[in-house]
Amino acid sequence: MECLNQFSKLFVLDIRNTMGLLFWGNFALATLVFTFRFSLFSKDNKTHLLIFGFSKIFQSFAWLAFFLRTDTATFNPINIIIPNTLVLTSYYLESIAMLMMVKDKSKKAYRIQTILLAIVLMCFYCAVWIKSKDNIRIALASLSIFILLIIPTLRFLTETRSSLFKKILGFNYIILLAVLTFRTIYPLFKTSTTLYSIDPAQKIIFLIIFLMMIISGVGYLLLLQEEKEIQIKKLLDDKDKFFSIIAHDLRSPFNGIIGLTELLLEKNHQLDAKETNEFVHLIHQSSKNAYSLLDNLLTWAQSQTGNLEFSPKKIQISPIIDKTMSLLVNIAKNKNISIQSEIINGEYAFADKNMLETVFRNLISNAIKFTKTNGEVKLSMTKENHQIVFSVQDNGIGIAAETITNLFAINHKNTTSGTNDETGTGLGLMLCKDFIEKHGGKIWVESEIGKGSNFKFTIPNPI
Question: What confidence tier does 223 reach under pLDDT thresholds 50, 70, 90?
């Protein structure tokens, strides 16, 4: 203990001044976070910063409330409940901000954190109601913060392909959790412990919390900046892919149109009606291919730059299917392919209507393209675990396993001619993936060579 007393002399601040330091530290971090928020263009990053910023505001006001509490001898429930509620809420918001940084985040994780907050608050309020001693309340508050932070911290450390910087930030929280563990146990063996007691251990704990707060705050901002740089690199890579598609694939149909029209002009008087009709048919097909590619390119570009509005609402599914099938019915007739929908009337989804139409149009169009004459395409849906699972199945040529691996990757060129030599770029599937992920769903394919393909995708079903 004497060694501890000597070591504590390194820290000249008393408990109240340390609380003041925690107030100004959190307030400064909140100011920095909200300033940072205006420099980050990503909507997701701005949401992260908003939640993280409010966690620091709540915490700064909590420490201010502790600092301003002058009468520490009299038991006053209001003076105890208000600052502790602010502290626990602030760490709950910080835990949510941490979970938003994890790649495989889910709504279930957020719900768990909310339930944990409700439980720890009720436990603390019960402790106040039965007038528990100061040391018991301190131990309970420390344990509550530990409970709120443990899951996000473990997710940070165990996340696959996590960056080194994220792991370092995770270890910072591990140190904080270790301090909280000590602060949970220590007061139980020292019954005279209060929040304002002149105790070297208490002072050191507060200063470690202050240090961890600074590291986590600055680290969180740097981590978001790192993610922004990764997003910029991805946009640059996507831009390169974008121009390569334009340079190669968009040139082909226009070369075909130009070549065919030149032949028509040169041999106009030498061609009979049947030959002329064949040329017109080829020009029409090339024009449709060029238009389809341009439409996907422009839609994809809008999506990548954030200019495409995402407006999900409750919509009926059958009209979307009917509209898509009517657009593609002539293409299907040319190959005598039947399109059947097993989706009954009266089924609803919470989705963006235009995006859902684009997804179905691309998937059904691909199914027709890679299905032989006299084949069939089936559409179906099921509801599983608060999600709607859609299926677009064909009995076409199928997809090789090595192709499936990179089917939805923009940095791989996936172009396979259809059963009637139809062309494509694979951009439609990337667009489908992007739109489905905006809804919080996922897309995948089950396929075997010669046995057809079954493209499936999910969207959340809150209805």
Answer: confident
Helical spans, DSSP H, in 9-160:
15-37, 43-68, 77-100, 107-129, 134-158
Strand, coil or helix: what is 130? coil
378 beta partners: 340, 393
d(CA 459, CA 437): 8
Tokens of 182: 């000590």
Q: Please give the Cα distance from 201 to 195 (Å, whole number).
A: 12
Q: What percent of the chain has pLDDT over 70?
A: 79
Provide the whole-model pTM.
0.58
Of 240, 243, 256, 182, which is closest to residue 423 (Cα–Cα)? Answer: 256
CA–CA dist 308, 166 (Å, integer): 31
According to DSSP, the β-strands at 376-384 and 338-341 are parallel
Mean pLDDT computed over 123-138: 88
Map residue 411 onto helix, strand or coil. Answer: coil
φ/ψ bin of 85: left (φ > 0), alpha (ψ from -120 to 50), beta (otherwise): alpha
Mean pLDDT of the chain: 79
